[in-house]
Structures are given as C-alpha cells and as structure tokens.
Amino acid sequence: xxxxxxxxxxxxxxxxxxxxxxxxxxxxxxxxxxxxxxxxxxxxxxxxxxxxxxxxxxxxxxxxxxxxxxxxxxxxxxxxxxxxxxxxxxxxxxxxxxxxxxxxxxxxxxxxxxxxxxxxxxxxxxxxxxxxxxxxxxxxxxxxxxxxxxxxxxxxxxxxxxxxxxxxxxxxxxxxxxxxxxxxxxxxxxxxxxxxxxxxxxxxxxxxxxxxxxxxxxxxxxxxxxxxxxxxxxxxxxxxxxxxxxxxxxxxxxxxxxxxxxxxxxxxxxxxxxxxxxxxxxxxxxxxxxxxxxxxxxxxxxx
Length: 303
Hints:
By secondary structure, the protein is of the alpha+beta class. Helices cover 29% and strands 31% of the residues. The protein has helices at residues 10-16, 90-103, 165-178, 197-205, 247-258, 260-267, 271-282, 289-300; strands spanning 27-31, 34-38, 42-45, 48-56, 80-89, 108-114, 119-126, 133-144, 147-157, 186-188, 192-195, 219-225, 230-237.
C-alpha cells in the first residue's frame, strides 16, 4: 500500500524534481598572474547579454592552486572588477532607432541606422514645407572614464529643411535621451550622450551568483568588435582603449567641452543666440574647426 512505501525512494524523487541551475557555476581562472572568478554568460533580454564577466580576486599569493577549491569560497570577499564582454544584437539597435524617431516625430519623418565597425551611420527624413528633406548623420563612441560618450556629428542635409543641421543633430540626441535608447544616458552638450554601462550590468549580474558587487571605477572601454549579428563591447580594468577614434568625432567632443555655452544655447533651441555666439567664436580664420562648422551650419539655414 502507498502508506507502507519504502521511504528510501523519497530522495530519488526529490532529485528528479530538483531545479536546474539558472546560471553556470562560477569558475576560477588564472592568467597574467591574476586570479579571476569567471561567471560566464548572463542573458539580459532580447538582443542583449553579458557574454562574459570576471572579477579579480585580491590578496592572492603564488603559487596558487586553481584546482584546490571552488570559486564560491570568495563570495564574502570584496573582489575587484576584472573584465566584461557585452553582446548587443543588431535588432536592439534597430528598435532603439525606431524609438528615437518616435520621440522626435514632429521633426523627423523616418530614421534608419547602418552599423559600421566603430562609427554608425544613420539616414532619415526631416519634415519640410516642400516635402521631406533627406539627411545623414554619423554616431561615434569614445571612452570617457568608466563610461562611454556617444556623439552625433557630421549631419548633412540634402534638401531645404526648416532647421539648421546642428539643431537637427540636437533634436536626434535629445530624442535618444527621452526614448531611453541607451539606458540611464545623460545629455553631453547638445549632440551627445554619456552613459556608464558597466556599473549597472555588474549590479545585475554579480548578486545573482551570491557575490558582493565590486567597485567599477577603473572599468574602461577596451575595444569594439563588430559581427554579422551582434556587436561586442569589451571593458577591462585599467585598459588602454584599442578603439580607433575618428578625427571629426574627436573635434566634436573637444568642441562640445570648449564651447559649452554655445552648445547649451543650441540645446535650448535658441538658434539666434547660438548663431551670435558662434559668430564671435567661429568667424576668425584661426578659430576652432568645431566653431567654424557650427557657424556655417547655422548660417546655411538662412541661405
């Protein structure tokens, strides 16, 4: 009878229904005379995942027996950030571009993103009285401390438009912030966004494994690797960036800092005041290339 069943079979039943591990078990890794706790992949949602993540174990003495114990013995220790590989699917960028267009639909009739190795190119249409005005713009990424800067630059208009090219770039950049195209991004000048991906990603992934969240202040964008279906952004502690930086992108970042007052006027949509500002700073032959470009872009709208 069921009431007289041998209780010894209960453990086997319990074993059969034991839930599977949600994530791979952390593993100890050893390279460059550093001991790491590696966590492997962590899915974050459709089109986004941490492909790899590792923390550095401090105060390790050598020789170190990497096979002598489980990585979980370091759960109570305050480990340091080691490296992180973020995988971003192309479809995620496409959805972000759609949200940006919707956030500035009063100005932009369409927007498409084309992915390159380190510079993205976008094309779209601006609403205009005589019909949509085509435009192109480039989006570049640059390391900024533990975060990343994204700037829209080299916006070109291919027809009469109701707004000057510099302000069209501002419209797109501010729409990207409103649409949360990059989570928790903050405006950088008139045409940029500044964001720190690593801290938020580490806070999501590390506690799931029972480890303490490390300080990520020394995380640096090391390189960007394009692929047929996804981009990989590699961050490492104290890394020197291997990202090839575009000269026009560097000029945009430098000019945004040097002419912060003019960029603030542009961001507010005060085009008359912005034009007057850049007349003072961009008219001289030896003026900064960024100021000259801004001035020409603002004056061209009146031609």
